[in-house]
Amino acid sequence: MNFFAFVQILGRRWWVVILSLVVVLGSTAFFTYRQTPIYETRTTIVVRLSEKLDIKETVDSLNALDRRSIIATYAKIPLSRTVQEKVEKNLGLESGILSDQESTYLIRTGVVPDTNILSVSVEGPDRRLVANIANAIAEESKNYVEEFSDIFRLKVLDRAPHPSKPVRPVIQRNLGIGVVLGLLLGVVLVFLIEFLQKLRHAQSETLESESKSEVYTPSRSNKE
Fold first, then answer.
1. pLDDT higher than 60, residue 220
2. I need a surface site. Which of 9, 27, 145, 207 has the fewest CB within 10 A?
3. pLDDT-derived band of residue 151, with 50, 70 and 90 as boundaries?
4. CA-to-CA distance for 188 and 87, rounded, in angstroms?
């Protein structure tokens, strides 16, 4: 099939493409706008040495800090149930809203590559509350470390801002995907209809040819 024939087929059934586009794009917009917006923000924390160490303790502690296992250990503190329960209490949140596995608020931590900086991100449906949670987690993690460690300290580097736009759903991306899928589905339907019509036409011609053959073919009794 050449390009001209392709355009002719689409031109005859352009309404199928438009109808498919409207249905798919409308469905995409409907489900996109019904989704609960999810916001994300993050704060960063520096793992540093205590000011109370002498020179020898400082050198030894710096060597220990170079081991990634130390930083990885501190990265787990913001995820602990102890810290999260204190945050729930301090912010007046419902018990378990952070620590339950089915919580609507997702807390993640990570280590900035080649640094002693921890990143704490919080996702959730309330744009102000995610920032408050992230900052409270950073403060409670800092307080927790001060209680059990005389060597290392945590210091908040950047506080989490209130996010202005949701990270999900991405409306423009979803609508763009809806347009592409609607057009592709419309083209597929056009050629499916064209194929079925040609198939039905071929079958009708075959049946017509067979019926004519039965009418004009003389029977054996007539020949005798």
1. no
2. 207
3. confident
4. 54
Q: Enumerate residues 6+ apart whose C-beta is below 8 A from 35.
A: 168, 169
Q: Which pair of tokens denotes residue 82? A: 């102890």
**Helices and strands per DSSP (H, E), number in the chain:** 8, 4
Please give the mean pLDDT across all residues of the chain.
84
For residue 37, cis peptide bond before it (omega within 30 degrees of 0): no
Amino acid in position 199 = L
> What's the rounded Cα separation, in Å, for the pair 157 and 115?
13
The answer to whether the CB of 45 falls within 8 A of the CB of 135 is no
User: What are the tokens at 118?
Assistant: 């921890």
Q: Kindly report the backbone phi and psi dihedral angles of residue 66, in degrees, each rounded to the nearest multiple of 5, phi listed first.
A: -70, -20
Contacts of 68 (CB under 8 A, 6+ apart): 111
The values of phi and psi at residue 108, to 5°, are -130, 145
The dihedral sign for the CA sequence 76, 148, 141, 74: negative
At residue 105, the 3 state secondary structure works out as coil
Residue 130 has pLDDT above 90, yes or no: yes
Interior/surface letters 37-56, b for 16+ CB within 10 angstroms, e for the rest: bbbbbbbbbebebeeebeee
